Amino acid sequence: MNALELKSLSKSFGAQKALDDICLSVPTGSRTVIVGPSGSGKTTLLRMIAGFEFPDAGSLTLNGQTLVDSSHAVPAYQRQIGYVPQDGALFPHMSVAANIGFGLTDTGAARTERILALMDSVALDANMANRWPHELSGGQQQRVSLARALAQQPRLMLLDEPFSALDTGLRSAMRKMVARLLETAGVTTILVTHDQGEALSFADQLAVMRAGRLVQSGHPMDLYRYPGDEQTAHFLGEAVVMPARIESGWAHCDLGRVAVNSNGFCGSAQIMLRPEQLQLSDQPDSPDARQGCPAVVVERDFAGNTCTLTVELHPQASQDQGRSLLVRSTGMHAPPAGSAVQLSVLGPAHVFDLA
Ligand SMILES: Nc1ncnc2c1ncn2[C@@H]1O[C@H](COP(=O)(O)OP(=O)(O)OP(=O)(O)O)[C@@H](O)[C@H]1O
Ligand SMILES: [Mg+2]
Q: Which of 71, 128, 277, 312 has its CA 20 to 30 A from that of 17?
């Protein structure tokens, strides 16, 4: 069953079209992640679902209840939707405890206990309860805002880049903790993020926005492997894109003959591979390498457990003089710049522009 249904939502600010005919179904209890470049309309969409912005056209229903359409709108405070805005938006004149307890009906010891439990659930130390928002770091403010939203036991939670001010380790720990917390409580969640890794790991459903439009949605792995266009491909991770001639399930390209999922398509197209689909060997006599494509490592970008190599195909292999490709390698065994290598391709390439 779908908890939330967005139907043809549109919104303009003057001449600026912030949302353009957005349709999306969010299943009950699921985690939907919205990604897209800055200014693509992500915050506007969340604010509209929360009830702080109103559409020029379209409708929005939650668990079968119409929240807004052309004739009426349920006010924000009656929607039972938790919203953690991009900047946290804490009440500046209230302590951490008062911010978190803002909507709680509990009093006395029960209230204090509940506030401390909520602080604990977002990894905030109990001794911060009496601090003022301006005495907190950006990441701590985001967590207070999250605890305040959780306190309301919402039926839908909207999170606008809630982990953006946290360092990598805490960010991933918080993400897992919040995911568990929301899942246990059965709360349907929509998260906005700029972080591709976060989007792919948090989402049951991923939605990509661009210039106010929802350009693609689906399971994160499908979007990563079968992006609708080149821009989406690059948005969700590094991608190797090159022209090819498609024939009988094979792409003929600078990498030689590569298997593709072409659904019977024949002709010219762009193909895409993820860097981890390119395997590199610096042992020219190994059986794999003999069938591979000759290349030279021109740059090595070491990042600890992985290493991204820029390799240039041998000029004879490349239609474009010296085509450069990205290849992923384990950090420890990556060959240095200048090494002669052989490239082979793993798994099918994705074909764009089949329409
Ligand atoms: N109140 C407003 N008045 C005028 N224009 C607005 C208003 N709110 C948003 N916009 C415009 O609408 C577009 C979408 O803005 P929005 O904040 O939704 O983007 P976003 O995808 O959340 O971006 P970011 O990733 O930078 O947070 C932008 O061009 C923005 O300038
Ligand atoms: Mg935003």
A: 71
